[in-house]
Amino acid sequence: MPRLDRLSTLIARFSLTVTPAREAVANLGICRAGKDGAMRVSLTPHESGRLGLGCDAITARLDWGGASNPLLAALPERVEMTVETGSETASLLRVFAAEASEMRCGAGPVLDRLGEVIVIRLLRAEIARGAASPGLLAGLADPRLGRAIVAMHDAPERAWTVPDLAAEAALSPSRFAELFAGTVGRTPLAYLREWRMTLARQDLVRGDRVQAVAHRYGYASAEALTRAFRKIHGECPMRIRRSAA
């Protein structure tokens, strides 16, 4: 069975930017090697979080879709990873620190790309640890549920049913529904609807027509999309499209 890629589709949907910033407004920090010979990278993905590093650090502001990004929304208040100085990740952190400190020509795009790699490695580590509370990361960490979630991410337009998704997870429909709700914190079809509406909002902000967005994500009409969109976002999709114009 091929190795499951839990992150690529999610990551591709949200553009990431990184800007050097003071610790007071930063949400990404890299502590240079201390006496123990290790480096540390910290991310506080929510607005309420504060780094509070207490070390010689490079700090930056990372923007990656905010609350609309389900990966960021699923993370705890603080995500940390300790890195041995001789490792591949430590080399990556050192390059990031040098670019952020010197800000030479082209530093902006370099920081964006390095920041994305750093965040992916943090996410991998968080998934490998296993989430302590229900949510998307807990679902992705489960090898059975992860396959069903990735299937929804990859084909949001498909008319998924619980039996279809259960087959992806190689579970009975009843066991799948129970495990999904307990692990992710919502039913499979509620998660699918939220994912579709996240994508629909992105497309509407870009200026796509409501009817086109409806068909893109499996809705029979603009009216059907509007009902689902209003339930999730509390406003009309046409209003989102007009405000983005």
Automatic annotation (TrEMBL):
<dbReference type="GO" id="GO:0003700">
    <property type="term" value="F:DNA-binding transcription factor activity"/>
</dbReference>
<dbReference type="Pfam" id="PF12833">
    <property type="entry name" value="HTH_18"/>
</dbReference>
<keyword id="KW-0804">Transcription</keyword>
<dbReference type="InterPro" id="IPR050204">
    <property type="entry name" value="AraC_XylS_family_regulators"/>
</dbReference>
<dbReference type="InterPro" id="IPR009057">
    <property type="entry name" value="Homeodomain-like_sf"/>
</dbReference>
<dbReference type="InterPro" id="IPR018060">
    <property type="entry name" value="HTH_AraC"/>
</dbReference>
<protein>
    <submittedName>
        <fullName>Helix-turn-helix transcriptional regulator</fullName>
    </submittedName>
</protein>
<dbReference type="Pfam" id="PF12852">
    <property type="entry name" value="Cupin_6"/>
</dbReference>
<dbReference type="GO" id="GO:0043565">
    <property type="term" value="F:sequence-specific DNA binding"/>
</dbReference>
<keyword id="KW-0805">Transcription regulation</keyword>
<dbReference type="InterPro" id="IPR032783">
    <property type="entry name" value="AraC_lig"/>
</dbReference>
<feature type="domain" description="HTH araC/xylS-type">
    <location>
        <begin position="146"/>
        <end position="243"/>
    </location>
</feature>
<keyword id="KW-0238">DNA-binding</keyword>
